[in-house]
């Protein structure tokens, strides 16, 4: 009887330790938006380029990424990235907020939002 209760407690303990070790447990809200610490990270730049490229395909425009101004990420079934981007269309520069949902194990990225930044 005693060993029947030990396994679930042990399993939950391992789960909690893995969350704390990954930085999700302490000070983070699971499912909440967290700031991206390094906006110059190669992966973050790939996400930003993807967002602009995908928006260009969907709206038949020729925006070009200039700079990532701000970024947040959210753990979901994968990862959501919410980026504030400075883009140009010729001589005009504008700011947009893009949201990309990524599921790396499926090699999947989806632009879920691309709107003028407020």
Topology:
Blueprint: H1 2-21, E1 33-35, H2 42-59, E2 64-76, E3 78-89, E4 92-103, E5 108-116
Spell out the key features of this protein:
signal, five-stranded antiparallel sheet, Cystatin_sf, 32% helix, 42% strand, 2 helices, Cystatin domain-containing protein, cysteine-type endopeptidase inhibitor activity, Cystatin_dom, 118 residues, alpha+beta
Description of the structure:
With 118 residues, this protein is α+β, with helices and mostly antiparallel strands. Helix content is 32%, strand content 42%. It is built from 2 helices and 5 strands; from the N terminus they run αβαββββ. The chain has a 5-stranded antiparallel sheet. The protein is globular. It comes from Rubroshorea leprosula. InterPro entries: Cystatin_dom, Cystatin_sf, Prot_inh_cystat_CS. Residues 1-25 form the signal peptide. One of its GO terms (molecular function) is cysteine-type endopeptidase inhibitor activity. Pfam families: SQAPI.
Q: Report the β-strand fraction as a percent range.
A: 35-45%
- What characterizes the major β-sheet? 5 strands, antiparallel
Helical amount: 25-40%
Determine the oligomeric state from the structure.
single chain
Overall geometric form: globular
Q: Briefly note the structural class of the backbone.
A: alpha+beta
Radius of gyration: 19 Å
**Spatial arrangement of strands, main beta sheet:** 1-2-3-4-5
The low-confidence parts are: 10-27
Mean pLDDT across every amino acid position: 84
Number of helices: 2
Question: What series of H and E elements makes up the topology?
Answer: HEHEEEE
Keywords: Protease inhibitor, Signal, Thiol protease inhibitor
Signal peptide: 1-25
GO molecular function, one term: cysteine-type endopeptidase inhibitor activity
Organism: Rubroshorea leprosula
